[in-house]
Amino acid sequence: MAKSETCTLYDLLKNPSLELSTENMSEQELRRVEVTDSKVQVVGLSIAGFVAHLYHHRVQLFGKSEMDYLETLSEEKRLEMSEIFLREKPVAVIFTAPRRPPEYFRKIADKYSVPLLSTKMISSVFLDYVREILEAMLAPKISLHAQLIDLLGVGMLIMGESGVGKSEISLDLVMRGHKLIADDYVEVKRVYPNRLIGRCNEIGQSLVEIRGIGLVNLQQMFGVTSVGVEKEIDCIVRLVSWEESHNFDYERVGDKINYYEILGVMKAYYVIPIRNGSNLSSLVEAIARDYLLKKMGIFAAKEMEERLDKKLKELGGI
Known about the structure:
Blueprint: E1 7-8, H1 9-13, E2 20-22, H2 27-30, E3 34-35, E4 40-42, E5 59-62, H3 64-71, H4 75-86, E6 93-95, H5 103-111, E7 116-119, H6 123-138, E8 141-151, E9 154-160, H7 166-175, E10 179-182, E11 185-191, E12 195-199, E13 207-210, E14 214-217, H8 218-222, E15 230-232, E16 235-241, E17 259-262, E18 265-274, H9 280-295, H10 300-316
Parallel strand pairs: 4-5, 5-6, 6-7, 9-16, 16-18
Antiparallel strand pairs: 1-3, 2-7, 8-9, 8-10, 8-11, 11-12, 12-15, 13-14, 17-18
């Protein structure tokens, strides 16, 4: 089940990449302020009194331009514009270098309980960092019972019932030079606009459970290049037993791409019926190559259709 993620201003404050300091609230108070929107809004015209398009739930970025504008005003007008802006109660206002909130601005912010922070970075640089960090923190997430393999550069999510052989496939593929990202449980998050990023949880990283052996550490066995931390998911493979294959719609010709939805994102989908003795590692390698070819617009089924049409035309001309 997908989870709606949140983070707090304290989480942002403690992220070393953002170089943030709190200006008017304690760290304990910042722990109670949740951020729910990954978009960041530049204050812009809001500080001039036009607050119709101010999104209260977005972090507001207060830069040199906004501060320079306030300094052109009389003291009375400066206080008035600051009051109009802050009484809208945005979730937080972050001042970027080289500016910091003046004392009168702090007092008005305290009046409306608006958190103020400042960063050592200039607006253009900070904006890129904070957007990326908020998108990662607030991305919708889901945990799936599956394997995630980096196979020829293709992020392949392998699904199937317990006992179908997913872990054994992972081991075999690593021995063939491919890379395991996650075994058994994959944490998947959606990153704007339509990317799915899969990763292993910290506890299970590098570990695979093989029936009859138990847990094995692939990194210790095969080296650091045999495992990875995360990978974008490109396609999904579902392994089904031959006896159950009649319950699934699997491809026989391959003239189209089927899709499977995770967190609202559609990804190429392959259903593979398997029998005892099937060479599953070769099958999934073939899937990765087929995916790459189809991504380039090369379909074997269409090639066969063109050959057939050509042959029929030749026979018709006899």
